[in-house]
Structure formats: structure tokens, C-alpha cells
Write a structure and sequence with these properties.
Blueprint lengths: L1 H12 L4 E4 L2 H11 L6 E3 L3 H6 L2 H6 L4 E3 L8 H10 L2 E4 L3 E3 L4 E5 L3 H8 L3 E7 L3 E2 L3 H8 L1 H8 L4 H5 L14 E5 L8 E6 L6
Parallel strand pairs: 1-10, 2-3, 2-4, 4-7, 5-8, 7-10
Antiparallel strand pairs: 5-6, 6-9
Amino acid sequence: MEKVLQYKAALEKRGFKVRVFESAAQVKETLLVEIPEGATVGVGGSMTIEELGVEAILRAKGHEVYWHWKSSPAERAEVTAKAFLADYYLMSANAIYCDGSLWNIDGNGNRVGTMIGGMGKLIVVAGKNKLTEEDPVARIKRDACPKNAVRLGLKTPCALTGKCTDCASPDRMCKLTVELKNPPTARNMEVWLVNEDMGY
């Protein structure tokens, strides 16, 4: 927990609102209590949120949940647009650097676009495995991108070898790299740090 608290302090120094949780189970319980009845919920592509298992429960409670992972190709554009406008948006970070900056690499831009300019409250859930003292982009390209490429069945060098070659593959998903040095002006957001490994 000491490391998590150090990163909490670094994030807060940059103006981020931060909450700390001992476990993913605590995060799940808190989300289900704090998202009010009738609120719409958008979700960015995230194994962390997938591992929480909140989507089905939120739907069962009557919430409209917009998650492009859970939609058909024909529905994806509409679902992505509705996620941008949702009352709450759930996602993770690919890395949080020791200086308190928050890093994400994206392919389509819907996740980082909503992170920056979405309409509702943003909650970024990050396990302790996302906290890094090394170059955050190196961490993402080593630990996250190859696993995501394999999961998505992409034909990229990293899917085959497990190592990034900064490829020019048509399937390349490392198209956008976004660093948040501070919260975007007027963005209603919180970073929830979890003292467990979550996602990639």
C-alpha cells in the first residue's frame, strides 16, 4: 500500500482527485453504490473494468450501459457516441508515472477522446501494476499492447513476438499516445487506485 499512497500524493500534487482501495471487490461495491439510479454509464475499452464485472449488474439494475466491446459492429458508432455523453464514464489508465502523470495509448481514440472531453463524471480505475517508475510508454508497449493485440486477434509483430517493433502494420493499435499532466480544465474526474494488480 505504501507505493499506492506515494502515487496518490504525486497525482494529487498535479490536481487529480484520488481515492485508494484495498481491493477490486471494494471498487466494485463502491461503484454500484455511488452510480445513482437512472444514470447512464459509458465504458472505455478496459480489461480492468471487465475484471470488475459491473456491466451486467448495472444493466440488471436498469442502467443504460454503452460499451463498444459489448455491441455489434453495426451499433458501435452509436454506442461510442452515447458513451461520450453518458453520466458516468469508466476506464483505466495504461500507466501512471511516478511524477503523477497519467498515460494512455489508443487505436480509435474513443477512449482517450472521452477521457479528455466527455460530458459525464470520469472514473479512472488503475491497479498497482499500472504504477511505474520506468518510461510509461515502454511499460505500456511491453506489458499491455502485445496482450491486447493477441486478445483482439490482430496481425501485428507484437502479437507474434510479444515485443513492440514500432510497426507500420495496418492492424497497429498504437496510434494515439496521450499524457495527462493535470486534469483537463473543468473535467469532473477521479482516479481510483487499487492495491491489487488489475488488467494489463
